[in-house]
C-alpha cells in the first residue's frame, strides 16, 4: 500500500470489536479490517467456529474471541468491561450480529419480537454506549480521531419490508441511533456511521432466495443485475473505520447494487399540489 493510501485507509495500531463475524457480511468486514492492519476482537456465541480467527491470524494480525449471548442483556452488559479490563485499546466497533424472524404481522409472536429487538437493537445500543464512552477518553490522533463506530442497518431502515415488523423496527432504530450518537460524539472525535446492506446472498436471506418468484422479482429490480456478496462490504468498512472518513459521520451508507436509486421505479411519478389554506400548499409525490 502506498504511503498516501496507507495514510487514508491503513488501520495499523487499531483494535476492532466485531459482532457477527463468524460468517457472511460480518466475516468479510472483520477480514477487511484485518487486511488493512487492525487487530480483531470477535464477539461470538461460542468458540465452536474459529474460522474467522484463524483467517485473521493468517493475515498477520491478532485475533481474540470473547463469548457472549447477544439475546441476553446481562451477557451483553458484561462484555465491554471484560474487554477493557484485559487491556484492549478499542478504537473501532462493528455491530453486524443480527437475527431474522418472519411472520405475518397479525401473527407475529411476542417472544420473537422481543428476541429480534434485543439482538438487533438493544445489544447494539449497549455496545455503542459502553465502547463509545471508552473511545471518548482516548488520546486523539493528528486528525482528531478517537474512534469509529460502524453499525449495520438495512434497506428496511428506509422501507417497511414484508412479514418482518420486528426486524424493520430494529433496523429503523439503528438508523436513528446512528444519527443520534453522531450528533453526540462526532465533535469529540468518535465518528458514528452505518452500512445498510441490500439483498445479499447470505443465510439470513435463505427464505427469500428459495422463493423463486420473489427472488426473481428482487433480482429484476437491482440495477447491477445480481444479488450482493459479503465481499462487497470490504471497501465501505475500511473507509468508515479510518481516517479517510474523518468528515463523515451520521451517514447511512447503502451497499445495495443501486436498489435505493430505483425507489420509485415502476410507479407513476405524479405530482399533486393541494391547497390547504391561504398561502399553504402541500406537494405529494408517488
From TrEMBL:
Keywords: NADP, Oxidoreductase. It comes from Stachybotrys elegans. This is 2-deoxy-D-gluconate 3-dehydrogenase. Signal peptide: none annotated. Residues 14-212 form the Ketoreductase domain. The keyword Membrane does not apply. Gene3D superfamilies: NAD(P)-binding Rossmann-like Domain (3.40.50.720). It comes from the Eukaryota.
Amino acid at each position: 500500500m502506498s504511503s498516501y493510501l496507507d495514510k487514508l485507509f491503513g488501520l495499523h495500531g487499531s483494535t476492532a470489536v466485531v459482532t457477527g463475524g463468524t460468517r457472511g457480511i460480518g466475516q468479510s468486514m472483520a477480514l477487511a479490517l484485518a487486511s488493512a492492519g487492525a487487530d480483531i476482537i470477535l464477539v461470538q456465541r461460542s468458540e465452536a467456529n474459529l474460522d474467522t480467527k484463524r483467517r485473521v491470524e493468517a493475515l498477520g494480525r491478532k485475533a481474540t474471541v470473547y463469548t457472549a449471548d447477544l439475546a441476553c442483556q446481562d451477557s451483553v452488559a458484561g462484555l465491554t468491561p471484560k474487554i477493557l479490563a484485559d487491556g484492549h485499546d478499542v478504537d473501532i466497533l462493528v455491530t453486524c450480529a443480527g437475527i431474522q424472524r418472519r411472520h405475518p404481522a397479525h401473527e407475529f409472536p411476542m417472544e420473537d419480537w422481543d428476541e429480534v429487538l434485543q439482538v438487533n437493537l438493544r445489544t447494539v445500543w449497549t455496545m455503542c454506549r459502553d465502547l463509545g464512552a471508552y473511545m471518548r477518553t482516548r488520546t486523539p490522533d493528528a486528525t482528531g480521531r478517537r474512534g469509529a463506530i460502524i453499525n449495520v442497518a438495512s434497506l428496511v431502515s428506509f422501507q417497511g419490508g414484508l412479514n418482518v415488523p420486528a426486524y424493520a423496527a430494529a433496523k429503523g432504530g439503528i438508523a436513528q441511533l446512528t444519527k443520534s450518537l453522531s450528533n453526540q460524539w462526532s465533535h469529540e472525535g468518535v465518528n458514528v456511521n452505518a452500512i445498510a446492506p441490500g439483498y445479499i446472498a447470505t443465510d439470513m436471506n435463505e427464505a427469500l432466495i428459495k422463493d423463486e418468484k420473489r427472488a426473481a422479482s428482487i433480482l429484476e429490480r437491482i440495477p447491477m443485475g445480481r444479488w450482493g456478496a459479503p465481499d462487497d462490504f470490504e471497501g465501505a468498512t475500511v473507509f468508515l473505520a479510518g481516517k479517510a472518513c474523518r468528515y463523515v459521520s451520521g451517514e447511512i451508507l447503502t451497499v445495495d447494487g443501486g436498489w435505493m436509486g430505483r425507489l420509485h421505479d415502476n410507479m407513476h411519478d405524479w405530482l399533486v399540489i393541494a391547497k390547504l389554506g391561504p398561502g399553504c400548499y402541500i406537494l405529494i409525490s408517488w
